[in-house]
Design a protein that fits this description.
Order of helices and strands: EEEEEEHHHHEEHHHHHHEEEHHEEHHHH
Distance between the termini: 90 Å
CATH class of the largest domain: Mainly Alpha
Strand order of the largest sheet: 1-2-3-4
Number of helices: 16
Structural class: alpha+beta
Strand content: 15-25%
Number of domains: 3
Helix content: 40-55%
Shape: elongated
Number of strands: 13
């Protein structure tokens, strides 16, 4: 406990001397403390009370029993706020001694607390609220709200420099998903975690929680990444000095997903499938939207919304699709293939409206009817357990298979990596090579067509 005299009041009679002291109680569990008051008067009167002011422990000058002139100020504890607290403490002191002179002998137990509480009127409450330290859960909510409103920006880095952009919907969705999972984790454990509670033990507990829910390493890693980003941002904003998330052990786990692509023959089977019956109207639409994804190499969030505004004519008279990717904000331009041109013409350049779950469900049925039923080995990791199954290929086809298929087929057909990356929006060859699905045999066949392997001596 720090307890030093702030001011000394001397009544006219020295026997009536009284003092008002301010102090804080330091706790190892918190970097903030409440300013408390201690009043001592004649005839052994001692009263304790609590003020409404919460300050950083490091901002307190224990020798002078007031806020230090060398306090470290930031956006959560400003110089202006510190001066306001000092002014308020001085005003409380003035009122205490004015009341002391008036009451003289009458000092009930709540005498000092009542004076302080009476002073906490509408003018002081706004200050009190601003001084209340923000908790981790409150910060997460504010962090997401500022992402949604555009107040908080993402930093986009390119080889030409960097600039600020609004967060993509998918990124915001990831943070909201983490918030839900973190809240559920806290409810399960019956504990509310704050900034200083984030450590390696919490990391292990979180990973166990995700494993028990049978999440893949990529899903677990996505949530750990969100926590690390939130802790880094809040640390930069001066809310804590916890560096535990920077430890090597606090890692973002991931694994290469065992996904598939469709061959040229399978794509042709999907396109030629007869879906002209009225009962197949929705399947017909989903088939066409999926093929648009194959031809454009885009994510579902981009390819399902293509309309006439995205269609341009290049200087060489070739039609092309131009759009700005929602996830990366990258601008891409993709020449129209004959298949893509046919599909767009079918809908007068305005693709019908779909949603991802609708397409995910229907594309599996479409592939089944197109006889894409060969059994393949599929490996997944869920809840830290590796599982290998032999399942029909059509069951693994999703909205994202379209993009992966388009990129892989172009690669196998001999197009160079940088050209394909201009279409997909990938920034590095390393990330792109992880993305495409090519076996060692397929890669050898691709290179065997090149001039180097066909030259004669």
């Amino acid at each position: 406990m720090f307890c030093k005299t702030l001011n000394l009041y001397k009544a006219q009679n020295l026997s009536d001397m009284a003092t008002l002291n301010y102090y804080i109680r330091v706790s190892k569990k918190s970097e903030h403390a409440t300013i408390r008051a201690y009043f001592s008067a004649h005839r052994g009167t001692t009263l304790y009370a609590q003020t409404p002011y919460i300050i950083p422990v490091k901002a307190w000058d224990s020798e002078k029993s007031t806020i230090s002139q060398k306090a470290k100020y930031d956006n959560t504890f400003t110089h202006q706020a510190a001066q306001q607290i000092i002014d308020h403490l001085n005003e409380i002191e003035r009122r205490v001694f004015a009341k002391f002179n008036a009451d003289n002998q009458n000092f009930p137990k709540k005498w000092l607390q009542d004076i302080i509480d009476q002073y906490t009127d509408e003018q002081t409450r706004p200050l009190i609220e601003t001084l209340k330290p923000e908790t981790l859960n409150e910060y997460i909510a504010r962090y997401i709200h500022e992402m949604e409103s555009g107040k908080r920006k993402a930093i986009k880095k390119t080889k030409y420099g960097q600039y600020e952009i609004n967060y993509a919907k998918g990124t915001i969705k990831n943070k909201t998903s983490f918030q839900t999972e973190f809240n559920n984790f806290q409810n399960l454990r019956g504990k509310t975690y704050d900034f200083n509670d984030i450590n390696m033990q919490l990391y292990r507990d979180l990973v166990d929680y995700f494993n028990n829910k049978q999440y893949s390493p990529n899903t677990t890693g996505k949530h750990i990444k969100s926590l690390k980003e939130i802790m880094a941002a809040s640390r930069e904003e001066g809310l804590h000095t916890n560096f535990q998330t920077l430890q090597k052990g606090f890692k973002i786990m991931s694994c290469e997903s065992d996904t598939i692509y469709l061959t040229h023959k399978e794509i042709e089977a999907i396109e030629k499938l007869d879906l002209s019956a009225p009962k197949d109207a929705q399947l017909d639409i989903c088939r066409d939207i999926f093929l648009v994804g194959v031809e454009t190499l885009q994510r579902y969030s981009d390819y399902h919304r293509i309309n006439k505004e995205n269609i341009i004519t290049l200087p060489n008279k070739t039609k092309a699709i131009t759009l700005r990717q929602q996830k990366t904000n990258a601008k891409v331009v993709i020449p129209c293939t004959p298949r893509l041109t046919r599909i767009l013409a079918k809908y007068r350049n305005e693709l019908p409206r779909t949603y991802s779950q609708m397409l995910n469900d229907n594309i599996k049925l479409i592939c089944l009817r197109a006889k894409i039923t060969q059994k393949i080995e599929h490996t997944t990791i869920k809840g830290a357990k590796r599982q290998t199954q032999i399942i029909p290929k059509y069951t693994l086809v999703t909205t994202h298979t379209a993009r992966r298929t388009g990129a892989t087929l172009l690669y196998l057909d001999g197009m160079d990596l940088l050209s394909i990356m201009k279409f997909t929006g990938h920034q590095t060859e390393t990330e792109f090579l992880k993305y495409i699905r090519v076996t060692a045999e397929e890669n050898a066949i691709r290179f065997s067509k090149m001039k180097y392997f066909n030259k004669t001596t």
